[in-house]
Every structure is written in C-alpha cells, then in structure tokens.
Amino acid sequence: MADCKSTMRELEATAKTSATTHVINMFQRPGQLEKVDQFKRRLTRKKNSVEALLKSAMQQQLDGVRTGLNQLHCCLEDVREIDSSLKKMFGLFSEVPQLCNQLNQVRDENMRHSQYVTARENLKHIFTVPESVEKTKQWINEGKLLHTHQCLRDLENSRDDLLYELHKLPNQSPHDKSMLKAYFADVETLSNILEKQLRLILSRTLNTVRKEPTVIVTALRIIEREEKTDQETVKQGKLTGFLPPGRPKKWKEMAFEVLEKSVATRVEGTQVDEREDNKHWLIRYLELTRQLILEDLRVVKTLCVPCFPPRYNIIDKYIQMYHNSLSRHLQEVIQNGLQGNEYVTVLSWVNKTYHGFELLGHPDLFEHTKNLGPLLPQAVMEHLESDYLKNIEANYIEWMRNTLTSEEQEWRSDVEPTSDNYSRTAAPIIIFQMIDQNLQVSNTISTEMTCKVLIVSIEQIINYGESYGKAVFDFKTKYFEDRKQVPYFTQYMIIIINNCLQLNELGTQLEKQYWTPSSPPLLGENFSKLRATFIQLRNDAGDYLLEELCLDLDKHFDELFNTRWLGTTLPVDTICATLDDYFLDYNRLSEPNYKFIVHQARALVSKRYLTALLSKRVSFKTYEESVQAAAKIVKEAKQLGKLLDTLCSLEGDDPFETVILLTEVLKSDDDMLSFELHRIVEKYPDIMEDHLLRLLSLRGDLARSDIRDKVAHLPKVKMTHQSSVFRTLVFPKLVNLNVFNN
Questions:
Q1: For residue 588, which of 386, 355, 392, 420 has the smallest C-alpha distance?
Q2: 28 part of a folded domain
Q3: Residue 394 sits in the same domain as residue 366
Q4: Is residue 268 domain-shared with residue 226, that is, in the same domain?
Q5: Contact at 8 Å (CB) between 461 and 504?
Q6: Structural domain tally of the chain?
Q7: Which of these, 499, 384, 514, lies nearest to 436 by C-alpha position?
Q8: Helix/strand/coil for 620
Q9: What is the pLDDT of residue 122?
C-alpha cells in the first residue's frame, strides 16, 4: 500500500512539472496572454474527455472482473458436484466383483441359450449335411452354380456359427472344435470343387462370352458374393479374433490370375512354327499374335464389359494382361537368340506395328491404350538394337572382306578384263545397294535407327577403303618386284581408280539423300572422312599408275642433255610416243579421273625434264652452243606440253613454262643474265641456290667464280605459301653456299 502511495506522489509531481513546462512554453510570446481563457476552455474540454474515457475503461474493467468472479463460482460448484459423483461411482465399483460372482449362473445360462438357439437354427443343416453335400455336387455337375453356391453358403454359415459359439466359450474344448470341423469337412471340399469349376469357366471366358454370357455373369456373381463375405469375416475377425476355416477365399484375385494365365496361354499358343521348320516363323508368329490380340480385345470391349462389374475395369485389365504376357514371351524369344532379319522383324513390330493402327492404335482400342507404356523395357530395346547393329556390322565385314578377296584374285589373274567391265567393277554399286537396302529396312523400325545404321554403314565403307588401300599397295608392290607376275596391271589399276571415284560419288549421293542439319555430328564427320579416304586412295592409285609410266620413261629421260642430245630428237620423240601409247589405255578412265591423270602426268613429265636438265650431265662450252641448246629445250618443252594439252585441255599454270623460263638464262648475254636470274627468283621464291648453280653451270662460257658471284648477289625474296616444282627437286650439293632460305 505504501508503494502505491509513493508511486502516486511521484506521478503527481511529474504531472505538475510537465504542466509548468507546458504553461511556460505557451506564454513565451506576448500575444498569447490574451488567449488565456481560450486555452483554459480547451484544456477543460480535454480534461473532461479524458475523465470520461477513464471512467468508461474502469467500468469495463469492473464488469469483466464481475463476470470472471461469477464464472469462478460456477466452476467451484461444478467441481464439488463432480467430486461427489466420483465418490458415488467409486462406491458402486467396489460392489462390481461381488455382483459379477452373483451373475455367473445368469451368464452361463445365457451362453447355453445362445448355443441352443444357434443349434436350433442350423438343425436342419446339421442333420442334412451328407444329403446337402451330395445335392451340391449334383448341381455342380449340372452346371447350376447359383444353387450350388446357395447350398454351400448355408452349410458354411451353419459350420461358422457353431464354431463361433465354441470360440466364445471361456474354456474352449479342442475336441469339440475338431469334431465339428470333421463333421463339416465335406463343406470345404465342396468349396474347392466350386473354385475349380469357376477356374474352368473363367479360363474359357473369351470363348464362353460369345455363346453363353450368362455363365460368365453367374460365375462373377458368385465371386462378388464371396468377396463381400471375405470382407465381413475379416472385419469380424479383427473384433472377435475368430476367422472361419478357408477365409478369406480371395476368389477375385483367383479370377484375375486365371484370366492372366489364359491370356499367356493364348499368346504362347500362336507360335506354331520353329526356325528349323519355317524361316519366316517369327513373322508368322507376330502376325498371328496381332490378329489374336486385336480380335480378343474387341470381344472384351463388346461382350465382356457388360458382363463384368464396372469397378473391374475389365478392358483395361485385359489390355494390361496381354501387354505383360506378350512382353514376357517376346523377351524369352529374344533371349533364345535372333538371326539375320529377325532383329528387324522384332524391332519394327515393337516400334510401329504394336502401337500402330493395326493393333493398339486401332480406333476401337485407342482410347484405352493411349497411355500404355512400351512393350519391352528400355534395357532390352537397347540390347536388341545393339545386337542388330552388330549383326549388320558383321555382315558388312564378311561381305566386304569376300569382295576384296575376290577383287585381289582378279587383279593377279592372267585373264584380261573384258570390255564390259574394263573401266570399273560392280563392287561399288553392289556395296551401296546393300547399304541402301539396310537403310530401307531400318526405316521400318524408326528414323533414329536409320541414322544409326547409316553411321555404321559409312564406318564400314571407310574401313573397306583402308583395307582396299592396303590391298592396292600390296598389288603395286608385287607388280614392281616383277612386272611379269601381273600381266594386266594397267587395266586393273584403271579399274581401281574408277572404283575409288565412284565410291566417293556414291557416298556424296548418299549424304545428299540422308544428311540433314539436325543429323548427329558424327554422321557428317563420317561422310567427310569417306570422301577424304577414297579421294586419297584415288590419288595414290593414280601415282601407282604413273609410276609404271615413269619406269618406261626413265631410260629416255636419261638420254636427254648428254653429248649426243643436241644432234637428235629421238629421246623426246620416244617419250611422246610412250605417253601417247599409255594414254590410249588411260582412255578407260572416267572423265574426272582422266583429267586428274593428265594433270599429274604433265606435272610428272615436266619435273622429270627439269631433273634431267639440272642433273649436270652436259656443259655447253660456248655461248652459241648455249643459245642452240636453249632453242632445243624450248622446242622439246612445247612439244611435250602440246602433246599433253592434246590429250586433255587443262586449266591452271603450265609447268613447262617453268622450263622455258629457265632457258632465258642459257641464251642471255652477260649483261642480261642477272636480270633473268632475278625474274626466276621472283617467280619461284622456293628455288634453291643449288638449282641456280646447276642451271648456270650448263653455261660453259661462264667461269665458276662468276657463277657463284651472280648467285650470291641475288636479292632475297619473301617466301610464299604457294610452292613450286623446285621444292621437290633435290640434288647433291655442288658448293657449300647458302644464299636463299628454303
């Protein structure tokens, strides 16, 4: 109380201080004294308002306290009443054990009464069990399943009621229970017989529903009743602990097991042939399966749906059962091993036929099958596709190996190619026909599989090209070891060159047909590699062909630029005649190959001529002799160039112009010699010092020191990326002098 007073005094003092400060602030300006009355009235109104709010708050607080007190009083009364009731209840509980003992006779009498009532209700069934069993068996034989089931239910109810009464006894007698079960043993036998009959009916559902749908309906009514009884007995068993013998029967589960087994039997039964009996066994099996499933599912949709309860979703169940059974059987077929086109048959059927218009995509079924998953697991499909690609690859390897072996035997034979196949063989066409056939077949599976097959095909052609190149090289090597061993080298090398270009062209056509911007990068890389492989092989084969020509020309080039050369035209005339003779055979080359060979021959002949010129086999002693030699070189270069131009008109620089340019050094006087050398160096920056020294050494009228000085004082020319024939001309060094950077 003292603390409360102290607090009030402190609050009052604080309020006075605050009021004094407020008044001082209000009257700091002179004009505010005139408003004293106005301020007083304003504060009076504010005070009255605050007092009214305070009174209202206090009144509400007091009302709440009053209400709380009333509620506390009521609670106290309730607690007293509850306490009194609990005491009375505990008093009554103390008398229960005594009352329980007093009611034992009543309880026993009630149990006996219940047993007598149950016995009286089932008396008819108890005394007629043998007759009922025999009558039930007769009804089963007569197909009267509803009568059978009704009689069976009566017998089971009687047995179950009696067993339940025994179960309720506090001191259960095992002997009584065993005796009762033995007495009703035939009832469980009847249940098993009825179950077998239902199994038989359900296993023939698709056949029976066409002729006698009422039989299916009857069987399903019995199953539904048993299912309901199962639910009731299980529920009762959770409450009482009593579960009748043979419950739950789970006949609904049994029904679906029978249906699924019958579906599996029908699917497996369509495989009527084996591979040994019919090579088209798999195609026939899949077609029969397609027809069977389509027909069966139509029957299910039109005839079974009205017979089965809606909650069975029988059409969806049947679709799933056929789906699972077919999947299992197909996996067994695949595990047993497939051969050849059987891979295509399975993949095409699974990817297209199964989900297509001919089966699950049929208008009658599509609504129920559109959400159905794939027939085979992804792992099985990947393994199947991998095996299919391996099978194709193995076929390619074997076929191409045999093709190459056959061609090698032809190359080494003593039989001249006939005019029909002189220019090329049928191998390239056959190879790409084989590839096209595989691609068309794979397209029946999917576009993705077509792309995979195409990649494998191109890879095998590339491998074939590499093997082909090795075989051609061995063929060339054997020929040059002893040219008599291979009498028709030229003809077969022409065939090889044409084949290589044709393989390249066929590959390009295939690329235009199948490659798209969305194709895998590997496909484009393989096509590029294919072209590069066969173009390089064509180029190598062309070199081998011209290598034979070089062997026959070398001895004639050796006769150039010797002491007898100025007085005769025989070497060049012989070279021209030899070229003309060889190109009569080369006419069998296809036009692009013929142009390529003429281009290579022109470069080769010009290089051999330059090599002979710079080999320093002769030196022209006087200036006049040098001029005469220059004129003869120009004539021979033009003669060779004209011959090759006659064979085929070629674009690009004429390599014989290089030879003619070099002759300017031979016929130039001393004043113009440095200028001509400068022209050569500017046009051919990669010409080497040794080349110039060898060229000048042909001038016997020039001293060796002058030759070295003229070469040494030539300005350095910046090298370009474009190379000339001089980069490939290498001779033993005449002098140790480095003027140019190679």
A1: 420
A2: no
A3: no
A4: no
A5: no
A6: 4
A7: 514
A8: strand
A9: 54
How high does pLDDT run on average in the chain? 83
Q: Which amino acid is at 682?
A: E
User: Is position 33 within any domain?
Assistant: no
pLDDT at 650 over 70: no
Torsional class of 243: left (φ above 0), alpha (ψ -120 to 50), beta (otherwise): beta
Burial (Cβ within 10 Å: 0-12, 13-18, ≥19) of residue 60: exposed
Q: What is the CATH number of the domain that holds 455?
A: 1.10.357.50
The pLDDT tens digits for 134-189 are: 777 787 787 788 888 888 787 777 777 777 776 766 666 666 667 666 767 777 88
Which residue blocks in 484-569 are alpha helix, DSSP H? 489-514, 521-557
User: What one-character DSSP code corresponds to residue 716?
Assistant: P
Average pLDDT over residues 564-591: 88
The confidence score (pLDDT) of residue 320 equals 92
Burial class (CB in 10 A: 0-12, 13-18, 19+), 671: exposed
pTM to 2 decimals? 0.70
Task: Establish if 306 belongs to a structural domain.
Answer: yes
Q: Give the domain CATH number at 663.
A: 1.10.357.70
Q: Please report, to the nearest 10 degrees, the dihedral formed by the alpha carbons of residues 281, 282, 284, 287 taken in order.
A: 170
Q: What is the pLDDT of residue 736?
A: 39
Q: 602 and 547 in contact (C-beta within 8 Å)?
A: no
Domain that holds residue 579: 558-728
The pLDDT value given to residue 326: 92
User: Are 327 and 430 part of one and the same domain?
Assistant: no
Q: Would 674 be classed as within a structural domain?
A: yes
Query: What would the mean pLDDT of 637-649 be, rounded to a whole number?
Result: 84
437-462: pLDDT as tens digits:
999 988 888 888 899 999 999 999 99
The structure tokens listed for 320 are 């799933």
Q: With contact defined as beta carbons under 8 Å apart, do 377 and 328 qualify?
A: no
